[in-house]
Fold this sequence. Notes:
A: 12 helices, B: alpha+beta, six-stranded antiparallel sheet, 6 strands
Amino acid sequence: MTSESAGDFYSGEQQRGTLRRVRSQNSQPATEAFSRPVEHISLEKLIGPAASAVFKAFEDLGDRQARTQLRVSSRVRQILDAIAADPVEPGVTHPAEPLLHGGPWLAIAPTLVEAFQEHSTARRSLLLLIGRLDQSDYGSPIRSLIERGLQDEDEFVREAAVRATETLGSEAKELLRRHSDANPWIAKYVQRLLA
Amino acid sequence: MDVLIRKVNGLVWTSDRHVCDVANVPATLIQHKRELFARNCELSFWHLNTTDPTWEDDAFLALLGVADRLDTIELAAVNLSAFEAAGIEIESSTVDTRFPSLATLHRDAVKLDGKRLVAIAELLNDAILQQCTRLRTREELIETLVRGVGTRRLAKAAQLPKDMKEALAGRGIN
């Protein structure tokens, strides 16, 4: 398809081409890029840094009963397991979804995000899952996770955070109005949501 | 104009123009590029004619018809002749969709090896660079679904996944 026919075809409202070109300047040589897996996370790798953070978070929960801690621990473990096995993709149901409902795990969710510092795919997956919760049931922990996601250094994570705002209700616009994204594609997506 | 459309997940489209420099890249390796995910050496597309006034709605409904979550969708369109010029074989294929009238539009690019997958990656990437893309947000997709019901392309809302069903119920459609 030529540029001319493309012009006829679409009104050309997206800036994505700019993004792609900017990204490709910084990309690695093809052979190197191909020799590196996208980002496969072993559960051990994921659990390693998360474990101490989760443990600390349990302590922060104070005098809650050991039973609650066990339940949270088991739930978190299952969530991590599912995310590590299969990154969350838009449009596709993920095995971790039912695990997020109604669990007290959200109390330590911000800590989990912190623990995922080295794993942008896991942070992105977590935000995509959060975007699937009925957010009116969860309130401020969700909002702060999305807020943090919007500030993430990784554009894929920021995109997931913008997606998550789509189910946030009236608070979303307030969050998005304050968000200015350096990535033109995300900026356009945000504008679209604010329109 | 006959085009083939495929969903691209926003920024997750990671095909790299450099991949064309890599000869004989194993298909299994390309499968790790999430969006260029091929099973059994096939990659599915939808074939639409852009002279049809409803083609855009059809495209999104086709993608929603096989999705199980109501998430923002971005699609890229490639001219059918570009596929043919790249020597990529296209076959009609069957798909289990909630929009029966769109089922006949489903196509598979077949007999894919590393070289052909790379060619497809390039064509899709060119489509993105040339802005042959369309994005519909969750809210816009709900409107698309509502129109799908209105034009009877969606026979029964009850067949939809839970979140799509709930979104339609919010518009008084059950």
